Task: structure prediction
Amino acid sequence: MNEEQRLEGQQSVVTKDNKQEKDYSKYFQSVYMPPSLKDAKKRGKEEVKYHNDFSISEEFRGLGEGKKFYIRTYGCQMNEHDTEVMAGIFSALGYVATDTKEAADVILLNTCAIRENAEDKVFGELGHLKHLKREKPDLLIGVCGCMSQEESVVNKILKSHQHVDMIFGTHNIHRLPNILKDAYMAKAMVVEVWSKEGDVVENLPKVRRGNIKAWVNIMYGCDKFCTYCIVPYTRGKERSRRPEEIIQEVRHLAAQGYQEVTLLGQNVNAYGKDLEDMKYGLGDLMDELRKIDIPRIRFTTSHPRDFDDHLIEVLSKKGNLVEHIHLPVQSGSTDVLKIMARKYTREQFLELVRKIKAAIPDVALTTDIIVGYPNETREQFEETISLFKEVGFEGAYTFIYSPREGTPAAKMNDNVPMEEKKRRLQELNALVNEYSANALKQYEGQVLEVLVDGESKKNPDILAGYTRKNKLVNFKGPKEIIGKRVLVKVTEVKTWHINGEFVEEVATIGVN
Ligand code: SAH
Ligand code: SF4
Ligand code: F3S
Result:
């Protein structure tokens, strides 16, 4: 769905008792567009449209004057970054941010649909907000993000959470001003979720969290359709931003003094495949970005299948390209990988790791793993354990498989009891901890370059920062070094972090 298709589309309004009424749409300018997983799966052939003309129209000026907004973000960095964009739009409308729900005039829940427990948290929060809404009837409550793209979620909210004022999806956050205005005027719940997309909207305002590290989208969506995963439905088809837009954004961040950028996409290795007028991939992009005077550049997330030799070659040039790669493997069993539709075998994954290590001998590799896939046997799980050891991953996010309605895996019969899945997760986690601690041991007595993020969450007298390989380092030091790269001597190594002593600031004479 793009802007034109939207305008041609059906519009109506859903009243809070869930009855469709015919003609209010024109009067309220409200839009009802139910999400459809079926439509979301259809990948349109229509060209990606690039919009460079985002601006806040006159009719919305002052909409937020004297009002406060609060956004709670769940899920991945993509959502965190969408929150920054929505914060930018709110600010452009005159709203001011608040960090307490009680003080807010508008509350948005930017949701994640990746696993059932992510959704449970949101429904729990919606329950709490009901009381707040009762005390403060003028409060606007909105649900956005990936859960809004699911039919079942929207139906559940329409039915059981009528204190929600607006639901909108991941493809139309640029329409936030319209949606807010509709929500103020309508007596009904405003629902606007585009199931299909086609657009890349540039120059949206952003209020970034912090001025040290920044996220930069390089592409949107995912076309991989791993059989367990909801993301291709909630985020739509793969579409890349133009390289010149990305390069300009990173240059601008460098000029503003940012020290690190993380390039974002669900499968960043597919970057550029959809750019019809040029042959350009992630390797080409990284090769240009490394010339920009910004100390660190990361990217997430990689898909092993699309990780090509050119990218490896570019990464081996290092400089500001850090030697840490997050490379989700999901399983060590070729049979399970096949049912997951990951499109690589155990052997192909190991071969990729071999190539990466040959080019970047000190690379730190981390991964994502799912245990308890439907019908996963004990032997198949053990193959995951053995692959983990063979690669020598330094960290991993580990998950028990969670069925997602509408995905192929959700229809599979499953003979693995939950108790067994939990045991496998525990066993894997013990291994992950052991390997993380071992990886940190190599740093004993060394001096590391740390980008100082700020005060440690647990103790404001301690500073916290990360190394190029994304290892957390805690140490005492003067507050003036926050936001700078410094040298820290390692004094103690724990399972997931390092303790150290501040040595000195890193001299900044260019990065390459
Ligand atoms: N695009 C990224 C990951 C996105 S989701 C990639 O392909 O690597 C982050 C992680 O959540 C995935 O890597 C996977 O390990 C996990 N995940 C996704 N769907 C899941 C599900 N249905 N149940 C359990 N874990 C899941
Ligand atoms: Fe989901 Fe697979 Fe796409 Fe990652 S690559 S977002 S796991 S479908
Ligand atoms: Fe969750 Fe959507 Fe990210 S499902 S992990 S917030 S892309």
About this structure: The pocket of S-adenosyl-L-homocysteine (ligand 1) is lined by residues 114-115, 228-229, 231, 266-267, 301, 303, 328, 330, 368, 370, 399, 401-402, 404 (CB under 6 Å). DSSP finds 15 helices and 24 strands in the chain.
